[in-house]
Amino acid sequence: MKLYADTxxxxxxxxxxxxxxxxxxTTNPTLLSKVEGEEGEIYxxxxxxxxxxxxxxxxxxxxxEMVSEGRRLAAIHPNIVIKLPMGAESLAxxxxxxxxxxxxxxxxxxxxxxxxxxxxxxxxxVSPFLGRFDDIGQNGLTTLAEIxxxxxxxxxxxxxxxxxxxxxxxxxxxxxxxxDIATIPPKVFYQMLQHPLTxxxxxxxxxxxxxxxxxxxxxxxx
Length: 222
Ligand code: G3P
Fold this sequence. Notes:
Elements: E1 2-6, H1 10-19, E2 24-26, H2 29-32, H3 39-49, E3 54-57, H4 63-74, E4 80-85, H5 88-99, E5 104-109, H6 112-121, E6 125-128, H7 131-134, H8 140-152, E7 159-162, H9 168-177, E8 181-184, H10 186-193, H11 196-221
Parallel strand pairs: 1-2, 1-8, 2-3, 3-4, 4-5, 5-6, 6-7, 7-8
């Protein structure tokens, strides 16, 4: 499963890109609202930091304007993918953009039927949300499993991009269910990295090495 970063924060992207773990980036209007600067420049910087698909979401609501905004965003960089919120207008816009060679990521997907419509319309990616189900006491992984299973039995070329990730277990479970991609907030990446036994083991190795060095230094001085 490929790992994407779900953020527009350039500092976090620089940190995570240096780890060598990122295959792409997703953003949305909420994430973009947290970053200072001109929209096009932000997307250009993101594309410079991470060599992979970078999802930029449109805010237009009608198919014609979605297509126009999508063309404008796609012209920023070859790696830009156009993110559309699931709906009839977005399906129609997807059909047009896909025929022009512009990749679409259909977002705010909460059911297998929505995902299947997205794939049939030609979306390159579909983003089933996990965490927003959890937020209302439901299990988003159940829907993700349905989508992955349905796609495996179909000839869709659309990649399943697990989104709205709240913690490392979402990432592991998405991989176990066969999602193609998980898009992960920086906070969760940092959680994935850490474990108290790793920290204590590293500290012990360092302490034992330093003790050995000190013992050798004492022997040399005698
Ligand atoms: O970017 C799409 C998705 O990852 C948003 O997640 O945390 O706002 O539900 P969240």
